[in-house]
Amino acid sequence: DAKTTQPPSMDCAEGRAANLPCNHSTISGNEYVYWYRQIHSQGPQYIIHGLKNNETNEMASLIITEDRKSSTLILPHATLRDTAVYYCIVRVRHNTNAGKSTFGDGTTLTVKP
Amino acid sequence: DVKVTQSSRYLVKRTGEKVFLECVQDMDHENMFWYRQDPGLGLRLIYFSYDVKMKEKGDIPEGYSVSREKKERFSLILESASTNQTSMYLCASSSGQGIMNTEAFFGQGTRLTVV
Prior knowledge:
The complex is a heterodimer. Chain A is mainly beta.
């Protein structure tokens, strides 16, 4: 799996968009970008994934640069409940890999009132 | 909704005890995983299983074993607990059906303290 780099922490005002960056300069052509988050004292929760096109679901949007060396997870209207550690993971998309992700330290997002 | 349930949220065990951590999933998933999570080290994969009675070592299997007798249940066993196994343990499952089903679902975690 390609290595990812994320800032250790970020703050965001409640109701504003939270933009969480991730660098993955060594990503391979068949590797996807996945995002999970972990709210305090809970297990990680899947958010979204993408290959090269931008993706959106009910939780977030994922913007991947054209060269695929970096991406940004966007929470459009952050709430206090979005305070969590956010993990960016890069891996080959196959069902045998789904649970074998390497979770680093992630970004601790704090949403403030 | 997929549910992955770990039998205990908190456990305190003595050094040398045999410890069983149980995980059950209700979505008929083929794949199940055990991680431990420690500050500064992220999540590390201990063991995983793609089918009943099948197991494979992850990145840090030493001191652990697993059992998968039924599809829905994956047990992590600490044969002789040691203080360096004090950690948060997370179970996860994912579907083995369809090559593109690649999301993993995690349980709430078991915080194990070995004294």
